[in-house]
Fold:
Amino acid sequence: MTLDSPSRRRLLQATLAASGSLALPALHAAPAPGPAPLLTRPIPSSGEQIPVMGLGSWITFNVGRDPQARKECQEVMRQFFAGGGRMIDSSPMYGSAQDVIGEAVQAIKPPALFSADKVWISGGARGVPQIETSRKLWRVPRFDLLQVHNLLSWEEHLKTLLAMKREGRLRQMTVPEPTSSPSCQPSSIGPPDRTIAGISTVDAAMIAEGVVLSHPVVSTTPSSG
Structure:
């Protein structure tokens, strides 16, 4: 059999095909590693671990009734939960964001949503119906976290939040550091036993209830509670 004979060529082709098929299992034997788990931190009052990366809704989720924009927001949330995310934050001042989130939550049914919202209205009595309206827009049975937004009527609203927490209608609560910058949003992770900038005293009952204080950058006196 010569080098250029048809039989020679067929033999080489068969040998190459066989060696290639043997190599395939080796190529698939070591799949690419999956994504690393998200970094978490505990909520001080409960120890519950929450991913340090959350999803905000200021401006970006205020899309009105635009069906395409709502679909895009829903896909963002779907990918967020698929990647291990849990906490989504909104506020009554964010326009249609609460309803956009609620519509997506209803469609996706995430198993581990941590719902964080705010009360943002003057007068403690007006905070109660606002919170209920927000809850209905979110389509959740209760909020995991409520914050007093920008310290507006904060002393009155904290009484409401404490009562809700005692009654089991709220899991966590927090007071944000006062700021004039809308980009500086409050965090739910922070020591529950310190005063914060702009607040000279924190009621002992709030500490006993495990109030989560955000941004304790001007801590002066640890509480004894």
